[in-house]
Predict the 3D structure of the following.
Amino acid sequence: MGTQFTRRQRLGYLLYGVVVLAFLYLPLIAITLASFSRKRYVSFPIKQYTTRWYEKAFDSLTISDIFWTSLTIALAVMAICVVVGFFGALAYARYPWRGRKTYQKFILLPIFFPQSVLGLALLLWINFLGIIPSWQTAIAAHLVWIAPIATLIIAIQAYSFDPALEEAARDMGASNWQVLREITLPLLLPGVVSAGLFSFLLSWGNFPLSLFTTGADLTLPEWLYAKMVSGYSPLVPAVGALTILGVAIILAVTITIMWLYRHGRRAA
Amino acid sequence: MSGTETSVVLRLEGITKKFGDFVALNGISLDIYDGEFLTIVGPSGSGKTTMIRLLVGMDEPTAGDIYLKGERVNDVPANKRPTCMVFQSLALFPHRSVGQNIEFPLKIRKVAPAARRARAVELLALLRLPADCYDKNVTQCSGGEQQRVALARALAFDPEILFFDEPLASLDFRLRKTLEKELKDLHRATGKTFVYITHSLEEAMIMSDRIAIMRKGRIEQIGTPDQIYNAPTNRFVAEFMGEVNLFRVRATGNGRLEALEIDASLASPDEEAAEGEEGTLMVRPEVIRFLAAGETADCVLEGTIFNEYVLGSRVQYSVRVGEKTLSVEKLREDRYTGEIDTKVLIGWNAEDSRLLGSES
Amino acid sequence: MQKSLRLAGLLSSLPILLLLALVFIAPLLVVFGFSIMPTKTFSLLQWPTLENFETIIGLSYYRSLLWSLGLSSATVVILLLICYPLAFAMAKVFGVFANVIAILVVLTLFVSENIRLFGWVLVLMKGGLLSGTLKAWLGIEMAGLLYNAPVIVFGMVYVYFPFMLFPLTLGISMVPNELRHAAADLGASRWTVLREIDLPLAMPGILVGCMLSFVLCTGAMLESKLLGGQKVIVMADEIETAFTYGQNWPLGSALSVVLIALVGVMAIFVLRRVDLDQILGRTNVQSS
């Protein structure tokens, strides 16, 4: 496949890729560096290093509260999206039903909407229903954007398996329920895990939807934003860096588990 | 083995299947006998796969009835029928081992693990797979091994009828030849009814008790391989059989035929053909002889050899007679010793040819 | 058989459809409702009026709209140029390494937008990573690069990079290699292959990528706030202001409706021309 590209060309592309990745990660590096700066208001180059902002972050009750809020929302969003997305993906890619093509496009619509508009619309709706916004309404808000994405991720997995597998299972006597349990679910599992991961992380880091719908509660991104625009606190880079680290760890763990699963299965 | 007086295990009556306006199957009626190996052959689009899907229960007929051992099964879904299909893609479960694949039909019927395993081992032996294959992941098996696993799995729950949807189509020549013979042996060993689809007539001839030839949703002819080979009902079936010489002819009433494409008079195999009746005369390449000086035959034609094709143990010649090109086939030892591009006399005996109906 | 599959499909779609009806359709209907309510009121039970739309046309809201559209267009063009080579490499050149790059890119998506943009603030501000390092190492004095229009585009290019990259990669992977080889074999230059084969066949992916980034850009709010310092007011800012400081839900809703209409029309236009089964059904980077 790649045989028609010369070594120089490949090297060129590789270099480009590295430059782009550097560009993508530069701000994250900047934050990490800034989090170790002794000075209250960061300026580069950093003369003195300290870890005291990290200590303060861990000690702070506010941050601890907000962390739990973000975590709860993210876990709830993940659980709901995985279930809804699994069935939605089956409807997307596996079952031939009338209206499927329209359904496919409709499900994607929320992704194409500006999140701030969606957030505000939800705020109006929540008020209209007489509900007071809180972290629970934020869950509903996140679902708008994230459930379609979860569905899409599992659907992509669903496209790549042979429909004959389910037919064969049915032909051999399996009931619909057995087919789902023995064939469909195990084969879609990688997609489901990816979708769960995405849902959790996208919810965790979401700002626009949370901003308008959490009401008096705060998520971590909201807190960070508030501090960035006014009342700057040197805890900001530290918390930011911790978030980055957290994301990296979760991803590394998940990928390792999936790799082990796949290789363990092969050996069986 | 080939049941002629034995019972009918599967009967189709007037089966029609439409997809929108397209008629895939057009009023098909067919009896399948218990224990026979029936192959359905036809070009793509003839409806073979559609028919099998109806028989297995993955689709419903638009009209007509299907009877399995006397019971009407139109509404019975696939998972309730005592039938099993081997798919073209084999549909082996990639996330399971060989043993788990084979045991699947038993597992969902809640058979105990020990009994399942025993049966799987039995099947591995029957299909000539090594016993240590049991724990191997199916994706790591070779093409031939995968075929056998698919067969073992299909046999696991002892279905009455096995269906095969062109399972050998994607294999290379050697493997195909081996598996064709093994399938026939398997049929003998298990005594079950096999219904097989292929587009290769050669494959059908090797394995089947009976062959059904399909075209555009209808069955053109059904019979034993011998019957079809010697007595094709019409031009389509005859042409489907491969290299065969066909002449458009008109009977001239005196036991002779006027060949319409070339200017010649031929002896007719059918003395009773009415004068003026048109039809097709079929002459197989292997019955035509090269006539030496002084030799004679019922039908004689003069032509020019213009090419020779060596097909292993046989040799084929293209002979131009007027506007028409004929095929003559000889065994290697009876090879024509003359030169190409020379004039020859070819001939055959009338009783070795056959008159087919006029419609094609 | 076929019928039960059709039923299964319908039933499977219900959870997400119901969910979206509740959190997507309903709120949008409320927004539409408010957009035709008298301005600065908070109830839906009044006589409809178009005064909000008149306000929008009359006052200079069109400036924010033009800014939004302009900045978004610039972003999309830049993104297309920057992402295409990388997407091409990922679809055709890199092989397995493409997955590594994909994971690294996706990783950045999980870090919240405002953290990432704040990182750029740290880099680009006066005394930030860029100017500070330049001063310390090379003695060059440099003013901060923030608080202007171009940096907003820069921010949007950064944030929405993955949303252009992945659809592009998908689209390009749909171009069969044999076609490219055949064209080259027949004498086509690299540019010709690009123009006649790559671009037309990758068009679904290109369209989706452009559409997605454009739409997301028009609704973007953080870049103009954090990087642009509110030097430029974009549509999303206006909407937020109307809802919060302005306490004018009907006006905010009307502005939202305008934005949604624009975005919705584009989305429908592109989605109609695109066959999702075809794009998503072939997600392997190796083309068939």
Summary: Chain C has 13 helices and no strands. Chain C touches chain B at residues 1-2, 4 (CB under 8 Å).
